Amino acid sequence: MSGTGSEVPAVRGLWTSRVAFILAATGSAVGLGNIWRFPYVTGENGGGAFVFIYIACVFLIGIPIMMAEVMLGRRAQRNPIDTMRDLAIQEQQSARWAWVGRMGIAAGFLILSYYSVVAGWILAYIPRMLGSVFHGMDAIEVESVFTALISDPERLIAWHTIFMVATVAIVARGVEHGLEKAVRYMMPALFGILVVLFLYVLTLDSFVDGLKFMFIPDFSKFRGESILAAMGMAFFSLSLGMGAIMMYGSYLPKGASIARTTIVVAMSDTVVALMAGLVIFPIVFANNMEPAQGAGLVFTTLPLAFNSLPMGALIGTLFFVLLAFAAITSAISLLEPPVAWLVENKHWDRAQAARLCGGVVWLLGLGTVFSFNLWADYKWTQKLDLGKVQFLLWENKTFFNIVEFLTANVMLPLGGLLIALFAAHLMKRESCEDELALDNHHFNLWYFILRFIAPVAVVIIFLHTIGVFNMLGLID
Q: How far apart are CA 27 and CA 232, in angstroms?
């Protein structure tokens, strides 16, 4: 193993090629974050201005930190907890850095708990599309179908269970026979369906409206919180700070270029997110719908598009099947780190570890299920009391809203910040140079961004989210 001086556990696997890693990492990144979350978060934050900030966050913060995560994972070739501990000890730092890995795994658990519920919505739509349930419906009728679905906890629990069983089954099979086989065909197929839908919306009169909404900034609709949301979206979309990319990096062969593979993954991820927005928003405007509809946006717009397509029921069914596959490729990347930790440290059977972790995620997911029905009226406000000063962390949020806020806007950026600080300030420069194998110019650029730009950007946004700037009167 490179760098740690310890032996790679015999239970580990490796991707069979650089292409396999790209597909797996892209599968981790490309999923519901791009096609479900990106459009509705963009709609809630005014469109073009948010997209501009999001793209800037991907390139200035996301890619450098993603390279650092992959680098740390491959150097240690362990799960995230042991990666941070082993590398910290190697660099003569505190073993408490293992808590960065623990926080990442915890974030992954929380994200997967609601991710699985939303993926269940997708599974529920497959038979509806196949049975032409949406044929002839208008926007209000389509929305009523979605409302009826999320209002029924028993149905949501059933679909949530089916998705988690499928995720556990894939992770239990290991790297080459489970994870790699799952992504080999799913991601290219999903991209192909997105291209078909994009060609369709090009024919709509409202395509220009969608294009303007996506790429012409309207800063009158842009809020200070939108900057935090953009960075959180970049971290969520790229699967940063949750242990998944570090885990996948640990399976990357030594000869593969970390920089090239990371850039390919980030570019693919961003393109899919933008395409999803360009597919959905023209449909929103064509049907006089509101782009800031929230979490149900995809489920109330795409069925309308399929109604207008030749063989719409077939194409719609295929799309939701492939979207479910994309959700699974992301889900397995979130479940893999804790499973790998149990296998490597507790010597558990992989299938047994997958079942236990999947069961915990399933239980957490019930909180999200009930947030849309039984607990819909239960909303929490949380303040941080620091003596004479109080900060409002969140106001009137459901369980689902709180978990989504904490993971996307707090835990993932914090994890990314700590990874950047560790890689660029605590690891020896020579260790980074050895693992990345970049020319001097490109290494210096990456090193500068990771040392200064990325940490400062994350800290500033953190100060904003807890209201420090508001308290000092620096912003409105």
A: 19
